[in-house]
Amino acid sequence: MIGREDLIALTRRLVDIPSTTGQEGAVGDFLFQLLAKNGWECQRQEVSEDRFNVLALNRTPSVLLTTHIDTVPPFIASGEDEQYVYGRGACDAKGIAAAMICAAEELAAEDRSDVGLLFVVGEETYSDGALAAARLTPKVRFVVDGEPTDNDLVIGHKGMVIARVEASGIAAHSGYPERGDSAIAKLIDFLADLLRHDFPTDPVLGRASVNVGKIEGGVAFNVIPDSAAADIMIRTVQPSDFYVDTVQALATGRCRVTVTKTSEPQRMLALDGFARKVVGYGTDIPALRPLGQPLLLGPGSIFDAHTPAEKISKRDLVDGLDMYKRVVRQLG
After folding, report:
1. In CATH terms, is domain 159-263 a member of 3.40.50.880?
2. Active site residue 106
């Protein structure tokens, strides 16, 4: 049995297996072998070449504990002190995976074998692992998704629209700008209008936000640029079509917009006795919702995720283990 005495060591072992998105095979193999060795019926859910989810069952589950096993780059090996475990994925989300495994093992020992485990790839980019899981996993009553929420129960999170915006112009000598047409100027005008746009506010989810994450264009300071592009993300609180239509309208006559990903704002199940909050980031829940009614909670802070000093409190890990057991019992 994998017990709570193994929680910290298991977290570090998972962190020490590099699994940047697209390269999750080794950590998937480790989890498959670990769970199979401990009596779980394990399946590999193929997502793409050398990439797979791991599904572990004891019998037909009513509750599925799930989180992702990919991380953002770069790899950072584990470390620890009296208070924290450090390393890439410590809180997002390998510590969560370890807490779920230990919780499920303890529940199984207490004759609650109707709990399944699902570890997916690809959450940090396009949720391709969760989308595959929605096709390949038996339906359950409840899906408990793990993200670093400070062990609070998240009752809603924003959706997203991700798009590439491109502008075209005419190259010319910068001494004669009238002979050219600056693509960068067009792009800047559009982005300024987008950032100033007054999007609606939702009473629960709050205000939508726009991030211009990347800009590129031009070849030299003395050449009128004939091309420019930007990658944008809108964190949404209304249906995604509303934002796509708004962006397209603002871009008319200036830029071309290619939408690369959308997901809808989410409302999740609330339980009595848990602190509740709303978060601004996205998760795999839109993709996983077909499997069962979703909940979202986990140990660790989102403000430590994706940072050079990513960490998770050992106390949070233990509390998270107990919290997952409590959630399963409360769900019946």
Report:
1. no
2. no
